[in-house]
Amino acid sequence: MDFDVAPLLTPYPCPSADPAPGVVVLPGGGYTHLAEHEGKPVAEWLNSLGYAAFVLQYPVGPDDFHPLPLNTARAALRHLRANAAHHRIDPRRLGVLGFSAGGHLAAHVATAVETSRDARPDFAVLVYPASSWGSIDRFGPGSPRRDSLLGPEPTRAQRDAVSIELIATEDTPPVLAIHAADDFVIPVRHSLLLTETLARLRVPVELHVLPHGGHGFGLGEGDPEVHRWTVLCADWLRRYA
Question: What is the pLDDT of residues 180-209, one digit of tens each?
Fold first, then answer.
């Protein structure tokens, strides 16, 4: 059952009077908090590209386990499509952009088979996503603990059920994945496994592995080599959003 998700959405409208593509921004934070540098600055960058942006304060914390974050993301997409005219967005061009744990949530709402069409994004951008909770047995130091999403002592079946490379289908929308080769918190293998799965399913997918950047770089401002992911993303959005 849906709930009133509007208070959890911070809108950053596109200046254009015409309906614009919309992007729900999902900051990272290991499902324990929300990283501020992956919220407002990202939304304002999307505005500069001509997109309406909405930062979602999805539930995190010691008691907000799966499927509450997933259901919140679904409710946000339904709400925005139902109120597209008010938000001046094109309901057929509504996507998600997530970082780390938010990248997992973005991928989850794009792939979960029980997600209805009105709650599924039209495209997904995943930046250093923690996409695999089952196939990869170990995350790096500082990574999200599995119990932050699944509760204490999750079973292998529970972990597999939220591992994107195991649940994705051919109905997954186009995906762009960005990862750094030297990310030792969420290893690049997460994006490699995901990309391999989506390619096998013939889902339009593009992966860019940056030579450095580590984890949590956000927009990568201050490092031209890392910041260029935003140029790659802008080009991809022009083609798929």
Answer: 999 999 999 999 999 999 999 999 999 999
Number of helices (H), then strands (E), in the chain: 9, 7
The pLDDT assigned to 140 comes to 57
The two structure tokens encoding residue 237 = 């959005």
**Beta-sheet strand order (sheet of 124-127):** 9-12, 52-56, 20-26, 89-99, 124-127, 175-180, 205-210
The beta strand positions in the chain, using DSSP E, are 9-12, 20-26, 52-56, 89-99, 124-127, 175-180, 205-210
User: In this structure, what are the phi and psi dihedrals at residue 57, rounded to the nearest 5 degrees?
Assistant: -90, 75
Q: What is the DSSP string of 185-226?
A: SS-THHHHHHHHHHHHTT--EEEEEESS--S--TT-TT-HHH
pLDDT band at 227 (very low <50, low <70, confident <90, very high): very high
Superfamily of domain 18-240: Alpha/Beta hydrolase fold, catalytic domain (3.40.50.1820)
Show me where the domains of the chain are located.
18-240
Tell me the chain's radius of gyration from C-alpha atoms: 16
pLDDT in tens, 81-95: 999 999 999 999 999
- pTM for the complete prediction? 0.96
pLDDT at residue number 141 = 55
